[in-house]
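re: ur question from yesterday

yeah so i grabbed the chain u mentioned. its 433 aa long if i counted rite. heres the sequnce exactly as i have it in my notes:
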Amino acid sequence: MLRRTFLHSAAGLTGLAATVSPAMALVEINVNKGNVEPLPIAVTDFIAGGDLGQKITDVIAADLKRSGLFAPVSKQAFIEKISNPDQPPRFEDWKVINAQALVTGRVAQEGSRLRAEFRLWDTFAGQQMTGQQFYTQPENWRRVAHIIADAIYERITGEKGYFDTRVVYVAESGPKNARKRQLAIMDQDGANARALTNSNELVLTPRFSPSRQEITYMSFEGQQPRVYLLQLETGQREVVGNFPGMTFAPRFSPDGQRVIMSLQQEGNANIYTMDLRSRTTTRLTSTAAIDTGPSYSPDGNQIVFESDRGGRQQLYVMSADGSGQNRISFGDGSYSTPVWSPRGDLIAFTKQSGGKFSIGVMKTDGSGERILTSGFHNEGPTWAPNGRVLMFFRQNAGGGGPQLFSIDLTGYNEQQIPTNGFASDPAWSPLLE
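ran it thru and got these structure tokens back, copy pasting raw so excuse formatting
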């Protein structure tokens, strides 16, 4: 459990702020520009009795740097040593090293709880931009660091962050001809990875519920391909339905009350929804083709899916009741694994064309297609909860195994996500609570 409060402007700051020119706006980043110059920011070690203060600020700085929007200033360049984070810093010392924003803070153990607090300063305007304090259990110190990074990101960009999140994925180990694939979960930066299953059976397509407490995935356990629900806290799991054919590509509805998936019967596959309370199913497509990969729009009113009904895999959109099925992709090659953006304005996809696999986005009517990255094998995009970053898996020519990567919506700032061994099929959680 995390509890937070906001810190008011530090003592003495009012007088300082009054001397600032009204024309000097608070520092900000316009994330809607195509290629943003990273903002220089100084993240000072939090005041602490041990090394926890430095460990927290290292996580904050790494989160901000990995976003591509911030450039943490080297600690070696710092002139002022912060000894009292309640007092305004010497802004001139931070301006001279071009730190346009400054983070100060402290962390302390209070009984069985950890108290962490931070302040974000605009060094050129000479003002505190925000400040918060948190009480939690000591083992949650990395979460606190991610939450602080999210608060800094939101204050400066005007958009929600995505650092206090987790990713489920398929962890792969062993030789290619005997590869073991387990369900695993980690923080979005690759830390705290742990296995969720320990079976030699193939697992595929893990997806978070909106509550962040459940995962749906597909497993071939017992040689029977089925869709499962897994409770993260208890480890309990159950089969979603008991269909005679193969079920695959499950995904939750935005309200978490339904699971949408494909059911294969007599050589073709159609899309169904299952009400998780009544366990009743509703068929949404009825063709002789392979209809699969369904993903709801954020409001739950529409569904994007892939189908080879036109001869090769293309993307289609339909209403949540299955009506009004319209093709939206018309480019060269084939399209698969569509995922609706949390913002509702874009659909991410995998495209196979010209001997390459690409990750791209298009508007929900199919216009404005943009390829973000391309190569030997890129597949399976998943959105960060703020709709600004995508994660996917990549396998290069020449062997080895798949690895996870992230890339900005703009196509910049591509980065590998560290994992123990090979990894594929990531799914990003909503922001934690």
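noticed a couple things. The chain has a mean pLDDT of 90. also The first strand starts at residue 3 and ends at 6.
anyway ttyl
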